[in-house]
Each structure stands twice: as structure tokens, then as C-alpha cells.
Amino acid sequence: MFKHILVPVDGSDDGWVALDQAVEIAKEEESVIRALFVADSRIIEAPYWTAVTPDDPIPSGDEKRTELAIAIGETIADFGAKTLAEAQRRCDAAQVACEVRYEVGAVVNVILDAASHADLLVLGRHGQGAAFAGPHLGSVFEAVVRHAPCPVMATQAEVTPLLKILVAYDGSQRAQDALTIAANLTQSQNRDLVVLVVNDGHPDMLNIFAQAKDWLDEHNIPAKTLFEEGEPAETILRVAREEAVSLIVIGAYGHSRFLEIFFGSTVDEVVHQAIVPVLICH
After folding, report:
1. How many CB atoms sit inside 10 A of residue 56's CB?
2. How confident is the model at residue 230, as a pLDDT?
């Protein structure tokens, strides 16, 4: 299912957690990890910088600026090479196939372009400690999640064994994709599956709940099915805690309050408040 897994790495703790989480999936799926380091071209080019520090102004003149840009680029390239070497080492230690790639450009655009050739994008929620890797990963997280052409897994602060999966279902095509992926993940490793339909006032929610149960029966997939009333994000998070799940799978947008992903939406609230990884299906 996930034959090519893209992981942006920036040398931060969250980036390594994302890589290690991806490695665990790759071992199950026999996937290839594609580790990507993106150097922000704006930092390398630095066309508008006026000072490196308050006491160390950048000399005027194109020649001096070019020299500075070259020095910055070399520093970033060295850091990127070391980061990718560590990514390769971790994958080799786990006996997982790995491809490493260094790119210079607009961080979001480079990640999204690479994601167009991936089956899964695994992303740390924040980037920390990568002084020359461009914006912290958290600052590009919204744009990447919103526009990614493949499913995105937002990891937690540490690697989480995926033992029990909760999928939020609202009858939309993205929710159906989420249900299919969750079912495949549970069947491949004999995990427990919980399917939740939240009645948030949409008139068809009982029919949608029946639709989910029919799909599970048709595909002979055992699951615990829940029909709960309440605000979608709050209910998803509550059920995730009560059921002690280790992964939440959700469609990027759908019906009613799931209309589309934007910060402040159901998806955003779930991603940022969940204590387990969240897999967002596009």
C-alpha cells in the first residue's frame, strides 16, 4: 500500500521521530524510504539581508554578497549531507531501503513536488535545531498538509507502535479513503479497528453510519463501530482517548464541518491536540 514513503528531515528531534516512525511502517510494507533535506533558497540567496548580527554588518556590493551566499550555501550543504547520512544510517540499521536527496528551493514547493511521487508523507509537527535547514518544519506544516497529493502522517514526540486504529468516517470520498487505508493497516498486522461516525447535526449521519457498517461487512473486516453525538474534533479526540488508540485516520475534508482542511478546522484541531499520530487522507 505504501511502497514509497517520503520523509523530510531537517536534523530536528521531530524530524528523526518522523523518520523512525516511517521506518516502522516501511518494515511492514516493504517500502522504500525517501529522505529529503530541503535547503531554503531564500536563506542561501539572502538578497535582502542587512546584517548577520547587529555588530557584523554585511559589506555592501554584489561581490561581497555573492561570497556570503556561497559560504552560507556551503554550510547548509554540509549540514544537509550529515543529516542525510544519518537518515541513511538509521534506515540501514533497520534493513529498510532508503534513497536520500538534497534539494535547494522553496521548502513547501519542494516537499509537495516530491510528495507527488510518494504513497505516504510522514512529517514531524515541528522542526527544531536545524539552524540552516530553512523555516522550522512546523512553519510549513499547514501548507504541506493542506496541499499534499498523498496521505500525510503527522507524528508525535516519540515513535508510537501502531496497535489500534481509529478512523473518523463521514461518508465523504476522503473518509472512504481513510476507511480503506485504516482497514488495510489493521488487516496486514491484525490490529484492532474502531470506526467512528460523529452526529454533528447533518441529516444523513445515521445513513452514513449504516453505510460504514455495510462496507465493513461486505469486506469482512471486524471493527468496533461507534455513533456519537457532539462536535466532530472534540468527539474524535475523546473517543481516541477512551479507546486508547495509537493512530487516528481522518479524511482531509468531507461533509458538514469537515468541508475542507484549513487551520481552525476539525482536521487542524485533531492534528494539533491528538496525543497519537494522525494520518490525513487526501
Report:
1. 8
2. 93
163/165 Cα distance (integer angstroms):
7
Q: What is the DSSP string of 122-159?
A: EE-S---S-TTSSS-HHHHHHHHHHH-SS-EEE--SS-
Mean pLDDT score, 204-216? 96
Distance between CA atoms of residues 177 and 236, nearest Å = 17
For residue 280, the model assigns a pLDDT of 93
As a whole number of angstroms, the distance between CA 221 and CA 183 comes to 7
CATH of 164-281, one of 1.10.3470.10, 3.40.50.620, 3.40.50.150, 3.10.100.10: 3.40.50.620
Task: Show Cβ contacts of residue 161 under 8 Å, excluding neighbours closer than 6 positions.
Answer: 24, 246
> Which architecture, in CATH terms, is 4-154?
3-Layer(aba) Sandwich (3.40)
Of the CA atoms within 13 Å of residue 50, those in its CB half-sphere come to 1
What's the grid cell of residue 134? 530553512
What kind and span of H or E run contains 269? helix 266-273
Tally of CA atoms within 13 A in the half-sphere of 160 that contains its CB? 22
First vs last C-alpha separation in the chain: 15
| Closest among 95, 105, 98, 31 to 73, alpha carbons compared | 105
Bridge partners for 99 per DSSP: 34
- Cβ proximity of 121 and 33 under 8 Å: no
Contact present, 105 and 73 (Cβ < 8 Å): no
Phi and psi at 4, nearest 5°, equal -130, 115
Q: Give residue 50's identity as a one-letter amino acid code.
A: T
163-190: pLDDT as tens digits: 999 999 999 889 999 999 999 999 888 8
DSSP per position, 15-45 = HHHHHHHHHHHHHHHTPEEEEEEEEEHHHHH
| Cell numbers that stand for 33 in this block | 524510504
